[in-house]
Amino acid sequence: MSPDNFIAAKAVEAVRNLYNTDIEPASLQVQVTRKEFEGDYTLVVFPLLKVSKKSPEATGAEIGDWLKANVQEISDYNVIKGFLNISFSNSWWNGVFDTIVKAGDSFGRFPSTGKTIMVEFSSPNTNKPLHLGHIRNNLLGWSVSKLLEANGHRVLKVNLVNDRGIHICKSMLAWLKTGNGETPESSGKKGDHLVGDYYVAFNNMYKAEVDELVAGGMSKEEAEKNAPVLKEAQEMLFKWESGDEEVVALWKKMNGWVYDGFDKTYKALGISFDRTYYESQTYLFGKALVQKGLDMGIFEREADGSVWCDLTADGLDRKLLLRGDGTSVYMTQDLGTAEQRFNEYNLDEHIYVVGNEQNYHFQVLKLILKKLGFPWSDNIYHLSYGMVELPQGKMKSREGTVVDADDLLEKMYQTAKETSSELGKIENMNEEQQDGLFRMISLGALKYFIIKVDPKKTMLFDPKESIDFNGNTGPFIQYTHARIRSILRKAAERGLGTGDGLKSDGDIALSAKEIRLIKLLSQYPDKVAEGGDAHSPAVIANYAYELAKEFNQYYHDTPILKEEDGKLLEFRLVLINTVAGVLVRAMDILGISLPDRM
Q1: Domain residue ranges in the chain
Q2: Does the domain at residues 3-88 carry the CATH identifier 2.30.40.10?
């Protein structure tokens, strides 16, 4: 039983004995005592005043007296206004720690729930390389998947590649017009970068034509619709959807270049998928549902042949589902793929990791699926996240002003190398070991800096700040782990071991900082559950930082290897070894590795 549930249960007994009243444990609020006050956990007394008929202070004192007298695990208490701060006994915390140690690697991992959850993330377009925005998407999708696995769910990580549409045709057309047969091999560029260059080239051609039409007297709005190069791209899309062999062959070739480039970036990020879907194979899925909606009378066909769903009565607008020429839109595809996935995998939840600019899209998707009669529509969850911005502002793909993912990874590597060298973190390491350390630190810095921010918030990314070895950063936590491993190595060299066989019998006299560490360790399963419920790996990131920070304060004040009492020394080695283990498990959820040496 967790400490807060234990206190709630005992408080119920206290209220029954003191006030002859039965209350539900769930009606009580128990929280960790704030650091500026003495105590371990705090019971909020205010809801009990109606049964005690006394002041908050008097009620708290009466309940505190009863608990101290009747519950051997509770050693003391104090009352601050309506808050009863409770301290557990030394033996209680020894017992808690013993339970954590015995749990081993399973600590913080929940048993199977039998639920299957699909997490769709990444979803790149094949007309450009991955950029900083994609990195946040990928890191969120991966860490949320790992977090849900820790909560006992079966998780399927999937990617839907947007490999068709007008944006793809724009890159293809620009390559035909200006590429002169250029390939990744001939240019020395990654395939996704090469294709992205032609997407920018198309936009430059398009802007030049629009300017020329406007100069000739056409309105800007008309010019943007009638630019010849845009008309050509639209015609290419129509040919692709009609199966034109020449267009399809070019499409396959250029997309192949991009897939190779994506795979290299995913590997560098430590990202993988259980299944990859391609829009070219799924975009027709929703057409049968369009007919179903027409038959049910919830969709309507216009005179031009287009099909719409009128959602104005639900406070939304009319949504296009099929164009007049019979081609589908994103919503059509998403309706069809949702049905296909729920049928194929019998999903309990489907999570879409997509930026907050698509909030309306997913609101409409759920509503239309509900109108079509699918009971699982309520099990769709849009993990909406804020954009990543830079000190100089927002990024724009078509203008070529994005921060490229590959360039950023290389910059992070170089920054990690420079910072580590300056701080003397690479002494006695060969070149291969140094390279591995730099990659581990750079990825840890990047991932942690992005994941520690609540997904819903827009974030400002600063590469230099992210790689600081102090403060709330990945490298700080990595260095903390390396420091613990260094202590344990020195202990092993002296023949002390790590005390893995410790059996806590409650007679270790724990310091306040040791109790603080054990208390933080005991909260890890609750943080895993909290993060899973909120679909927020930021909960785990910030927990790991608090644990690392608390260890460093303990290390500063406590002589571990200098301790002369053998039993206390063994306990402290097991304690810091346990801290290291929980840090490893927590950071693994974030996709971050922790080095043994730094």
Answers
A1: 3-88, 165-263, 405-589
A2: no
37 burial via Cβ count (<10 Å: 0-12, 13-18, 19+): exposed
Sign of the CA dihedral running 89, 94, 95, 96: positive
Q: How far is CA 577 from the centre of its chain?
A: 27
- What is the Cα–Cα distance from 98 to 94, expressed in whole angstroms? 6
Return d(Cα 573, Cα 302) in angstroms, integer: 74
| Per-residue model confidence as pLDDT tens digits over 500-543 | 555 545 578 999 999 999 999 999 999 999 999 999 999 999 99
Which amino acid, one-letter code, is at 193?
A: H
DSSP helix/strand/coil, 307: strand
Amino acid at 140: L
CB 84 within 8 A of CB 63: yes
- Could you tell me the fold of the domain covering 405-589? Isoleucyl-tRNA Synthetase; Domain 1 (1.10.730)
8 A C-beta contact, residue 100 and residue 578: yes
Q: Tally DSSP H helices, then E strands, for the chain.
A: 23, 14
**Amino acid at residue number 368:** I
Q: How far apart are CA 591 and CA 135, in angstroms?
A: 13
Q: Which long-range contacts (CB under 8 A, 24 or more apart) does 567-573 make?
A: 567/508, 568/508, 568/509, 569/496, 570/496, 570/497, 570/499, 570/502, 571/499, 571/502, 571/504, 571/508, 572/514, 573/487, 573/488, 573/491, 573/496, 573/497, 573/498, 573/499
Write the DSSP symbol of residue 146: H
Q: What is the pTM of this model?
A: 0.89
